[in-house]
């Protein structure tokens, strides 16, 4: 079993304290009564609930709360790695990513988006990293170590490109080879492509069980790249036409990381939804949904808790009695 919102499970750490406080009140009450009078006299002058009733009054609401928290965590049927989406982030590190038409520059914005998208995933799964310019290389193999992955993302730079140019198709093919069982690819680029097969490669991804998210980084107006080049002044602009075509052929979506755009939250929601669908497929159909079952159980327990508080089952003079609001008052049961 896995959870869409595992952060709610942390609240269970407070349950031992709740149980301790609840039963401390019961024990404290009985202790003070013991200080007031001896047991023989107490049976005659003090009206008390039966011990099991007192325990149930405190325990049932705690169980109801546990069911509600479990339901909030959105449990899903998934065994092993089923439902956990593996993602390969494919990041452009060509020299055009040094353009400063987005704050602080395209490369840094790409790093920020990758880190934010990965942090927004909640169902787990491994992450891999491919950097590309004229050629593509695996910068991080598939791993569940988020700290190591983040360290390698932060090191991405156009200075790491062995040959200048941009071949998106080759990068997508390398990323797909890292996902033999399917998964997701997040392509982060300004869209400049000097290869010839990017769209064809994107078209093949759905048939290989791979979902695609394209993140466009950069502005629409050409800007001069910093530094000096043998060919003189070099300018670069975002190629929306190519990015739209890649997303369309891959059956995915494209998001543009313009200044102020919240790409990460939208991308994370998409990846979580895809993970949920995969988890549902892995869990099969039929039976009671775990989250719904937990919610219904919590409601039943809550009703039971109210009934226990409303019931009047006591001990008087050592005998089990119930209390009626009518003229008969206490009656032996």
From TrEMBL:
Pfam families: VWA_2. SUPFAM superfamilies: vWA-like. SMART domains: VWA. Keywords: Cell membrane, Membrane, Transmembrane, Transmembrane helix. This is VWA domain-containing protein. Residues 86-274 form the VWFA domain. The keyword Translocase does not apply. It comes from the Bacteria. It comes from Prosthecochloris vibrioformis. InterPro entries: UPF0353/GerABKA_families, VWF_A, vWFA_dom_sf. The chain crosses the membrane at residues 12-34, 55-76.
